[in-house]
Amino acid sequence: MILCCGEALIDMISAPTADGGKGYVPHVGGAVFNTAIALGRQGVATGMLTGLSGDIFGQQLADALTASGVDTRHVVRSARPTTLAFVTLSSGQASYLFYDENSASRSLTPGDIPPLAASVDALYFGGISLACEPGAETYADLLRRHGPTRAVMLDPNIRPDFVQDEPRYRARLARMIKQSDVLKLSDEDLDWLSPGPETDEVKARAMLTKGPAAVIITRGGDGASGYLADDATIDVPSEKVEIVDTVGAGDTFNAGVLTSFAHDGLLTKSAIRGLNRQQLATAMAYGARVAAITVSRAGANPPWPDEM
Question: pTM for the whole thing?
């Protein structure tokens, strides 16, 4: 099972009201949650480790996980509120305003984390859950304790406006990158982590020296590039579709990559550390297919196998 560790929240998406005003409609979301949903819909054995509220939004999130076949035995329930992200869309691009203080997802501590099931053979981390304490340190501790024997994929999905203590956040990400096997970054993430005039390839290869066996850089509609330590470079174009919005695009790309790894029997520590060019190319191409379907419709609504 792939255990997706991180935030689950409600995206409050703007919509016109009957009287011509503007309201907000609650949709399930969160970067790590979206990846878990996409993996579950692809038929991959998937679990979610997060904090969920006992409020109506927490129940909405729990129901969505179950409906997509995601195992919820590692979910931690509490009376704290659900994180809300108010989403504004402009030309299909999303911007966010978060209400996250003392939330169920953010407030996890190491003592809250249940024992991992024996079936967990891969871990996925990312999103705003790595920026906000105490949850961020809890996930970092989880990786430290359980990452050495499991395949690990990390996508920081950096939102600079959400970072309160930049030096501490950068140090945490550096530790987690060192312990990851596959690191996925957007080109914007890469520039934030490695500012300077160097090319994406130079920066990505520098990231390889920090620990990961593979680094993937995504560029939205311009496709993605993968880098391996043997100097292999893999370029995969995005699939051309009519874009409705980009909510969840990167999250479902990650799910496609992990789905491909799972189908090819690569989700073990030794296999993922020994990825070859063809295996990574196949995984990235599948990620691009899943993401293309997601952006062709509203919200983070990843496809089921019969839609592929």
Answer: 0.94
